[in-house]
Amino acid sequence: MMRAPAIAAALVLAAAPVAALAGGDLSRSIGRALFERAWVPAPSSTKANDGLGPLFNARACVACHNGLGRAPATTDADGAFIHQGMVVKLSNAAGRPDPVYRAQVQTSAVPGLLPEARVLMSGTEARLLELSSGPISAETRHGVRQAPALRGLGRLSDVPDEAILALADPDDRDGDGISGRANLIADAAGVTRVGRFGLKASSADLRHQVELAFLLDLGMSTTAFPVEWGDCPTPTCRAAPAGGGVGDPEIRDDLVAMLTDFLASVPPPAAQEDDSSGRALFAATGCASCHVPALPSARGEVRAFTDLLLHDLGDALDGGATEPDVAATEWRTAPLWGIRHALSAGTGLLHDGRAASVADAVRLHGGEASNARQRFDVLPEDDRLNLLRYVEGL
């Protein structure tokens, strides 16, 4: 028997846009159904279901974000991807995409087309095999990215831009060695806003992040990204059938709004009471300088353990590919709430899952985090274990 949200979703997908649904319980129920929906290539029996590809990494949001948390990436006996929890990003040193393969390697394709590449993993290093359109540019760098946890995104939206900017110190005027900066982004109306979503803080709002995922991961067009062939510029891709109506995006605005509404409604991981000694050590080592325990909002404190700023973390955390105006070694401070769930699921930590433990992650921190790492390294063993237990429990 079809569940009520799925029935509602089917009705809305088949109907004209229903803007009045946005913001309510029905909107969020339909948003959940859209999150779980497996899309299909065009043409299909109903245009409401089609538009996938022509190149893509997954057929559904839930394929990479099952349970809304980080998912462990798995490979076959040869080391090739068999789980969709990771993607490979492409760019040159300035953040410009590869001229042929664009911003992300697409490992699946609609019938009649070849995937862009087969990705073979060795540890956290990716090898690109069977490239369908010749070699990547000599200037292009690549880097693995693990699908992030999606809990608490609505609370990150609550933090005012002013609160993030107040923490920025791009010139390190206080001399503490930390020069976090906001990623300032011009939106569609030309208004400068503070980026806060994504590993490089490249989206200022959750809706933009959702539309970017439709573009890069599913190859589906939206109002913000209207190109129906997604991340592929080759003539073969452009000739593939598109979904939606003539001149319309494959994913309508009301559907984007309902999916965004659902994700914004997902609460953060439940807070755990922390011990005062662990909390004091977290501050004393300097971890709290970037992993700020709480940020203000109109709905109360957001205890995400992040400042939402970009920090240069040194060569050991060079991510290969990057984005315009952001160095390959710069990352938005990762929220630590829910880190205990990532550890229990065995997903690894950092942008590519390379760190098996909190201690491993700390010791890969360089650049602006060098002083904090050094203070961690010289802690007495009991204090270091106490600090680790504190972070592992967040």
UniProtKB/TrEMBL annotation:
PROSITE patterns: CYTC. InterPro entries: Cyt_c-like_dom, Cyt_c-like_dom_sf, Cytochrome_c_Peroxidase/MauG, DHOR. Transmembrane segments: none annotated. Pfam families: DHOR (PF06537). Keywords: Heme, Iron, Metal-binding, Signal. Gene3D superfamilies: Cytochrome c-like domain. Residues 26-172, 273-394 form the Cytochrome c domain. Residues 1-22 form the signal peptide. PANTHER family: CYTOCHROME C DOMAIN-CONTAINING PROTEIN, CYTOCHROME C PEROXIDASE-RELATED. This is Di-heme oxidoredictase family protein. It comes from Terrihabitans rhizophilus.
